[in-house]
Amino acid sequence: MLKMYSRQDHAGNEPEFWDNAWDQVAPANFENIRNICENDPLWPLFERTVVPDRLLMDGGCGPGQWVKYYHDRGCRTLGVDFAPRAIERLKRLDPSLNVRQADICDLPLKDGELRVYYSGGVVEHFEEGPQDALKEARRVIATDGYFLCSIPEASWLRDQLLYRSANVERMVVRGDFGVRRIPDPRRESTPQGWNFYQYAFEEGEFRNHLEEAGFRIEETFGLSVLWGLYEIPGVKQAVPLVQRAISSAAAIAQGWKPRASAGTNRTATDIASDNSSSDISQSGGVLGELARRILVREDVTVPVLGSLLQLARDRVANLRMYVARPN
Q1: Does 213 lie in the same domain as 141?
Q2: Whether 34 and 105 share a structural domain
Q3: pLDDT, tens digit (0-9, with 9 covering 90-100), for 251-275
């Protein structure tokens, strides 16, 4: 597995880290919540597993888009996060939401209370490893429930190219991140000037963690290709130019001009983070819809391009989603 460090002032397992991170992101656009969620690659998975009269929990809910979306559709929802300002922000935005500040290793829930537990990029931030969080997830999920858990992938791109020379003794540094390769999760003193951020697991490694916690894996797939490509030097800077070109071409095809807000300050981070606020997700016509299906929804059913997208998911995606059920 890969152990990743950041130059941030706080470690990735501290509430202050995430409060600071969410403070830099615009509040969830609840007025546009349907577009945000229904263009997300995970929306079909949620639609398949969520049952309106049984509880869906987002553990590490951050901006709270899934909690808000399914709450507005009449489903029972709960958002949990250990970052206090994130929870306070959600309560201000919609006081009717069921959101709580809590530790996902010690949830305020009864055994088997959840139908669906979504954990999107959370359990990798425990330096001692994910096992306590996974065991607690197993406790609160019903026997017929689902655990939808995404974690950073030690992908072919990361493992064989970007951080191939990383080892226990040698850190590979790229920008504000440093990476070492270690055999198992462990608490240890961090290198000077760095803080622990997260682990990136090989598929077999995380499968073992899930199975040890009492889960069986039904499905797994790569997720968030753009974020994976961002770690290649220069890609993050180039993506906004491609984004603007696609948006402009789609606009021409539709016979209208791009929106005035489509400037160079709009990056593909918008696509990866909320899957809706970018110009691509708003573009019209055949080209706009194609770009939306490939870059935003990551729809592998698109003819020809879907096969290339599937290859990218398998080789360069930032995350891997595990669909697991209690044994």
Answers
A1: yes
A2: yes
A3: 554 443 333 333 333 223 333 343 3
pTM of the model: 0.86
The torsion angle over the Cα atoms of residues 30, 34, 38 and 39, rounded to 10 degrees, is -60
φ/ψ of residue 85, rounded to 5: -70, -30
The position carrying tokens 């797939």 is 221
Task: Look at residue 127 and tell me if it is in a domain.
Answer: yes
Question: Per 3-state DSSP, what percentage of the chain is helix, strand, and coil (rounded to 5)?
Answer: 40, 20, 40
Q: Decide if 167 is inside a domain.
A: yes
Are 105 and 180 found together in one domain?
A: yes
First to last CA, the chain: 26
Domain range holding 241? Answer: 235-297
How far apart CA 141 and CA 214 sit, in angstroms, is: 11
Give Rg (Cα) of the chain.
20
Report the C-alpha gap between 14 and 196 in whole angstroms: 10
Asked whether residue 5 carries a pLDDT value surpassing 80, the answer given is yes
Task: Say if 308 falls within a structural domain.
Answer: no
The answer to whether 325 touches 138, Cβ cutoff 8 Å, is no
Q: Which two tokens stand for residue 215?
A: 């889960």
- Please check whether residues 23 and 170 belong to one and the same domain: yes
Looking at the fold, whether 8 and 50 belong to one and the same domain comes out as yes
Residue 176 and residue 34 share a domain: yes
Question: SS3 for 81?
Answer: strand
Spatial contact of 315 and 156, defined as CB atoms under 8 Å apart: yes
- Are 162 and 264 part of one and the same domain? no
Mean pLDDT (the chain, rounded) = 86
Rounded Cα distance between 132 and 213, Å, is 9
Closest CA to 272 of 288, 236, 293, 296: 296
186 and 12 Cβ atoms separated by less than 8 Å = no
- 7 confidence band (pLDDT: 50, 70, 90): very high
In a domain, 302, yes or no: no
Q: How many CA atoms lie within 13 A of 203 on its CB side?
A: 17
Considering the domain architecture, whether residues 67 and 140 belong to the same structural domain is answered as yes
